[in-house]
Amino acid sequence: MAVALLLSACQPMAGSLSAAGSVVDAAEAPAEPAVSLPQDNVAIPTPFPTRPIYQPGELVDYIAQSGDTLPVLAVRFNTTVNEILQANSFIPASATTMPPGMPMKIPIYYIPFWGSPYKIIPDSLFINGPAQVGFDTKTFVDSYPGWLKNYHSYVSDANRSGAEIVDLIALRYSISPRLLLALLEYQAGALSQAEVPEEVQRYPLGSRLWENDGLYLQLVWAVNQLNDGYYRFKKGRLTSLEHPDGRIERFDPWQNTATVSLMNYFNAIYDELQYRLAVSSAGFAATYADLFGDPWQNETPHMEGSLLQPEFSLPMEPGSVWAYTGGPHTGWGHGEPFAALDFAPPTETQGCVDTDEWATAVASGVVARTGEGEVVLDLDGDGDERTGWVVFYLHVSKEGRPAVGQALQPGDPVGHPSCEGGSSTGTHVHIARKYNGEWVPADGYGGILAFNMEGWVARDGKEVYLGTLIRGSQVVTACTCSNRASFIQTDRR
């Protein structure tokens, strides 16, 4: 009997992508603004001065920020990588990430209607990375009188407190719990207001659709919006906003990624006056500073210069032929980051079936966490997935899964591919990377830091889930059909 490779793919967990690439809910009209208790009766600050009209190709000063890459800087300044390299002879053409704080000269080509240069929070405080280590969400929430302290809901097979729900979202989506608490306070007085209308507790963050009813689903909706904006800008795919009145605002080229994500988020839920307040120093930034102090004081970038991915193997046993069934798609949730790839083992039938095949460790590390279908491999060995390189596996069967704290070497079993965890049309394994809490897109940033396994480099396709793995002249094309063009085999012996 011929053995077919399983047709399989991950499925989105909630919502979908609009044609423009932003996360929206199915059949959703523009969302009504959420109730915004902390910002009532606050005057709109004076706008920042506009940028001058630069001469075409004029060199401007720029200080490299965390995770900057030349292809994306070229998009933001409307220039080219070659022109940036010519203006900065000390930067090698092979450079990956720029060292944060490094002075640069960038040729700029003017585009009108640049947005505010005001920066709300640094990128390192947006993601659930090293800056969040040691933060106790429950203790913090319990120190305030607001309604979040007494909130409880049944979520993911457990009755959870408001703080536990925040932590669950922060863990799954790798987004800062401090950021989530500040949003809940800014939009719904969750920490300061003990008594609020029921509607505020049901719909605290901006979407009043019935399928987003309750704190957990509101947070899911919000973090999908936030992550989508963050990673699209980080890849150079988000360059402007369209305001409700149709006005187009191009992001300031000097702007940082976390601020752009928040601008994109607030623009989706607020009218013009509320938006201008939210992205000003008197808006969300003031709420964050009141809760956690000045976010820019002692700011530590979470992505260093010249970052490289460790050497990875393919996630399968030697000698086995698997199918590449899913090109770059979301690491968790919906929309960007397109950090994950899917691989399916051989099977005689399609669908969700048991397999004796093993998904394997792509590098040495320690198992930091397991869950429903999940295995998190921490490569720096400290057991904390917020620091260093981390490999996230999804749809791993509970049977045969390694224990938390277990050390693995490349090729060691991680577990059997399955349909467990998330949503899946067939047995496979979903694999994604994070560095210091930031999802690393499978195609990298303008191709830099792309997923590389035994020299097979991931490339985006025309649509989500499409794409290729390329090694020299060899090309493997992702397809849920599991055809011959999608077959791949490890070189390990």
Brief account:
The chain has 493 residues and is an alpha+beta fold. It has helices at 70-76, 81-87, 137-142, 162-173, 177-188, 198-202, 215-234, 257-269, 272-278, 284-292, and strands spanning 4-5, 16-17, 23-24, 58-63, 103-108, 152-155, 158-161, 240-242, 248-250, 321-329, 340-344, 346-347, 359-360, 365-371, 374-378, 389-394, 407-408, 413-415, 429-435, 438-440, 452-453, 456-460, 467-471, 474-477, 487-489.
Q: What does this molecule look like?
A:
- The chain has 493 residues and is α+β, with helices and mostly antiparallel strands.
- The two termini are 27 Å apart.
- The chain has ten helices and 25 strands.
- It is globular.
- It has helices spanning 70-76, 81-87, 137-142, 162-173, 177-188, 198-202, 215-234, 257-269, 272-278, 284-292; strands at 4-5, 16-17, 23-24, 58-63, 103-108, 152-155, 158-161, 240-242, 248-250, 321-329, 340-344, 346-347, 359-360, 365-371, 374-378, 389-394, 407-408, 413-415, 429-435, 438-440, 452-453, 456-460, 467-471, 474-477, 487-489.
- The relative contact order is 0.17.
- Mean pLDDT is 89; it is low at 1-8 and 12-39.
- α4 packs parallel to α7 and α8 (257-269) packs antiparallel against α9 (272-278).
- The protein folds into three domains: 4-15 and 308-489, Distorted Sandwich (Glucose Permease (Domain IIA)); 31-43 and 116-292, no CATH class; 58-108, Membrane-bound Lytic Murein Transglycosylase D, Chain A.
- Helices cover 20% and strands 21% of the residues.
